[in-house]
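Possible race condition, two jobs.
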Amino acid sequence: MNGVLETGAQQTDDLVVDMVSDLICPWCFVAKRRVEKAAAILKKKVEVHWLPFELNADMPVDGLDRRVYRSAKFGSWEESQRLDAQVAAAGAEVGIAFRHDRMKLTPNTFRGHVLLAAALKDSVEMQGKVAERLFQAYFVNGEDVGDPAVLLGIAREFGVSAISGVEDLDSPELVAEVRATERRVSAGVRGVPQISFGGRVLASGAQHEELLAASIREIQGTSGQCENGVCTV
């Protein structure tokens, strides 16, 4: 696959699922696991094509103290902790050990999306590995995924060919590509994750794997049907 961020399932026996997401969205991490479980139900291999969405587009480039930010956003630290507990419970069901105690910052995620776009230039598989590592970095290890040094380390860990130095995370070409894709995919999106297959939205939110599998079966069953001179996709 080339590096163009296009949506839509590919012509393959594997499942290619598009997911509009942000790196600091815990439900996107949960959704990743549920998509993988849905693929297991369908006895298919799945690759997730990650599309950028910034929940905090105005976040300072160095991020903000997580407790201060979330206390203001949700009205109190106690409410933030209640929401964290909900996420932790859902994560435990799919094998994610969220460590909110390690998460000191709410980072700016734009450069992380640049890294994902760069990884896609190698392959969807490479992008998937980097996405998994970024989620693990933030939600399990408490790393600052807005820090260019952290992102460069991850790029080098997986051999992302388009990122050889921190300056590449600000590459005008990659920045323009991510900005254009953000504008395109954000139309109509009110929250993330938004999960699509074959050009159709499967779920807005981290829907359970049985429902995802059923929706994929339905799309596969109706794809390419022709009736009364009209062929549906």
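Job #2 (started ~2 s after job #1):
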Amino acid sequence: MSVFHYLVKNDEGNRSEGDIRAESMDLAIQKLTANGQIVITLKEVDTTFDFLGPFLDEINLTFERLKNRVPLANLVFFTRQLATMFSAGLTLERAISALSIEEKHNKFKKILTEVGSSIRKGLNLSESLSRHPGVFNNLFVAMTKAGEVSGNLNEILDQLASYLENLDDTRRKVKGAMTYPIFMVIFLGCMVLAMFIWIIPKFSEVYSQLGASLPGATKKMMDASAWVTENLGFMFFNFIVVFLVLFLISKTQRGGFIIDTVKLKIPVFGSLLNQSILNKFCKTFGILIGAGVPVLEAMVLLKKVVGNKVYEKAVQDASNYIRDGYNISTALRRTEVFPSILLQLVSTGEETGEIDDLLDRAADYYHKQVNALVERMTTLIEPLLILMVGAVIALMVVLTYLPVFHLGSALQSGL
């Protein structure tokens, strides 16, 4: 988020100046003129060394989302029901009040009650939702605002519900594809750790009492087991420290960019993540354009929705190119991040005037790609992981029992 220094005057001619944070100069002007003020000067402030503000904003938003975590299924149901009730003629206040009474999730119930209270005080729906950024993200608020301005709020809410359902389906499939491999890796780590801490030391004591000379591979494994047993607390402490450091680094611009770049380059998983991001990008962009949101405002929202620093930078660069006069497809092409299929569809959409429809088709294409990758991963990775776990455990068992194969000579040397 950029910082702008402004000088404005009101209707009475009184001047005031200060700093304001906004995603772009256009949005800064909109914020300043919202109260009827006239902008005299507006300059972007160089914040090269001011990384603490955005960093703290990211940390606060993360904790806000964790504190008010609401299942996406609940949010989808709320949006769909609100659209139905509003189109049936109920006021927003009555609809939200009824939904808050029926809501079973305690945190979401409390938030809906607060939203209903804000509407009773005179705020519109988008302003009421914006007070809870941990639950209703920028896209949700912007789409609601676009529906209020255009007068078709029920249609926009219905589109939002469909969008969230698509997002939930994609996210569930990506998580489902990653859950099994992660579980197997954790299981393997726990098994190896258990053998190092409890099983191998017992064999080590037996072999030590026998006084037998151990094979080199077995001796190295015994030494590794002894080191792990002695330094288990230190290893656990280091793991927590590394996790916290990586978490804090991921919230900075440069650190997050490096980590997200690595994620996209991981074999198989990187491709799955990439297709998932493109699905989200196309679906969101199509809905925003179809709702009449200006392109530059849509790009600001897309930057916050994609969830990957590499794509955030690409969207920001594309936004700058559009501001300089390039069309959407050319701006996206110049970032050298978006695939050619997407660029061709966007270019065709600009020529035919149906860019929102073609973006929706692109989203469906990437959704199918995600499904295909998940099926492929399920077919290939699961048996490979089972073989890997079996091979590692078998190797450790063989190395542990290797001296037993030479038990005769071991007993003779012990005597």
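Strands lie at 2-9, 15-22, 38-45.
Logs attached separately.
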